[in-house]
Every structure is written in C-alpha cells, then in structure tokens.
UniProtKB/TrEMBL annotation:
Coiled coil: none annotated. InterPro entries: Aminoglycoside_PTrfase, CcrZ_PhaseVar_Mediator, Kinase-like_dom_sf. This is Secreted protein. PANTHER family: CELL CYCLE REGULATOR CCRZ (PTHR40086:SF1), PHOSPHOTRANSFERASE YTMP-RELATED (PTHR40086). Pfam families: APH (PF01636). Residues 70-277 form the Aminoglycoside phosphotransferase domain. Transmembrane segments: none annotated.
Amino acid sequence: MDFEKRNFFPDPFKKMMMNMKKVIMNLASVKSFVFALIFLIGTSFASENREIETLQIMKDFLKVDEGIQIKELRGGYSGADLFLVDFEGQKFVVRFSNQISPEEFQKEISICEIASHAGYGPKVYLSDEERGFIVMEYLVNELDVEKISIPSLAELAKKIHEGPSFSSSSNIMELHIFRMLDYIYSQKFYSEVIPLDWMERILQACREINTSLESFPKEAPCHGDLHKANLFFSNGQCYAIDYELASMSDPFLDLATLSLSYDFDKGQDNLFLTHYFNREPTQKEQSKLFIMKQLVSLYWGFGLINLIEDGDPATFTSLKKYSQMDELDFEGSEYKLIMASKYLQKALDNFESFEYQEALRILN
C-alpha cells in the first residue's frame, strides 16, 4: 500500500474546516453547531498530536530521523487511536488506549504480550504504560474474515482458552449484563428508548440464566470480544487483536461471540463445538452455547445504546419502531439504536422459544 508523505506539522484548522463543511450541511440548530465546532476542534488537535507522538515513538524505536510514513486507522468502538507506520516496507501498528486507566492498560499490555508469545496475537515490539501505547506487528489479511473456516475459528478459541492465564477475572452476568441493566434503569433517556416490557422480560430471563449457569462453572483465559472485526487470517492461521476486555472468564463467552458474529445456525454451532472439543458436544454444552448467545446479544444491544451520546429523548423513537437501516451513519445514534433493537429483539424472541426452555431444563 502506498502512503502519501505527511507534513507532521500541518495547520490543524485545515483538517478541522474540511470536517466542519460536512457537519454544517446537516445542522439542525445553532446549539448543535456550537457542539460540533467544539468537538471537531478537540478531535482535530488530538489526532494531530497523536500523529506527532507516533512519529517520535517510531524514530526512537527504529533509530532513524526520516523515511517514516504514517496513516491513521479506524479504531472502531474501542476508543483507541491506531496508526499504521511504514518504514522502507516494514509495517507496524501503534495503538493508543484512551478510555482506560493506567492499571487497566498495564493489564492489556500483559495480555497482548501473552497473546504474542502464545502465537495467537500480533507480535508486541514495544509498550509504555505511562504514555499509553503499544507498538505491534502489522498483520495483513490473507483471507476475507467472512471466509475463515469453522475449524480455524475453533482452533483460535482453543489456543486462547488453553493458553497462559490472565491476571484478572470477570463474570459476564455481573459485569456486562446486570451492571448495564442497572445503569439503563437509572438513565431517563435510555428508559424512554427501551420499551418497559422488554426490560422486564430481559431481567426475568437474566435471573433464570444466572441460576442455570451457577451449576456449570468454568474459568479460562478469554478474549472477551472475539468477533470478526477483531480477527485476522495471516501466515496460514487465525489471529485475534484488541484485548481490552480479556480476562479469566467463561470460555463459552468467546464461543458464543464467534457464533453470533458469524451468524451460525444450529448445525454450524454443533460443528464448531465438535472442532473445539475434538469430539461430539454434549447436550449441556450445546445448551450452554445457546444460552450464552442470548447473553452476548443482550450485551451487544446494551453496549450500543451505551455508546449513544446524550441527546433529547424526543428525537428518538422507541426501539420497537426501528426496522430499516437505509443509508445511516455507522457512528450515528440512529444506526446504533437500530442495531441495538435487532440484538435485543433476537434475544427476546429466543426467550419465548421451546429451545430456550429446554436449554434451561438441561442446564438445571
């Protein structure tokens, strides 16, 4: 990939005004204009500063003064700033974590190094917990992640779960579900967006599931966010990136996340479990995967709602009204609400199914 040479001390207002032109076209009020102006000024300066910092980090690491080319990469919903660095054909990724504490970042560095040494994560070349960055190997996808085979996905999950332990533990029910439910109940905006009958049924199901999972305890090193956007297929094998949520947890969390991400049906789930266990899965294992998929659907739905910026509830329709994606902005509130609706509705539909009741019976 060819990169244009970058001026590392550009006028920050040039980039800001280019973005501002797009925003102005969609302004609804003077108030939104002011907020947009403040936001774009802040993000423009932050981006330029990170680029300058990346240049200095790589100069020190490579021990060179020139010839380094940098391109900003999209960081998804993790809040991280990512930069692709190219020096005479050698490529690296510099990742800045912005939304976690130094202690959490130290944990992430430790897990990235474990993943690197265990062979299921990119190589880590340099890290600095005080400055909040990691320099890693740049992986090139040799295969569309949509086409990664079920055996390869199962092998990756098994490598993580059977690898070295991580330093912290988490519980999907306590950390991801009940905490989000409490938070959403406490926020008037969210409670008006999510129909009350949905919340009541979700809470009832979560209590049922929590009871059934208590009889099926197991803890292993888990990625915590093992979906297709965090996968690469390179050098003939599958790798995982982004370990912000990694911890000692229930391995079925990762299995369910992969299954949902690839939209596996029941037959594919059974094939996936067969390759993961190297044997036919038991009824309990099949039932647990089904139950955990519902929890991950809830987690994704709540997580997307949690990403919505504060706004006037009157500008949003109840989630029950959303059905069409159309040409929506991936980062926009309406897109997040529609996707949240799909994930929550999927779990709600399954809570009324015979398969759900049968899974609870088997696990209990």
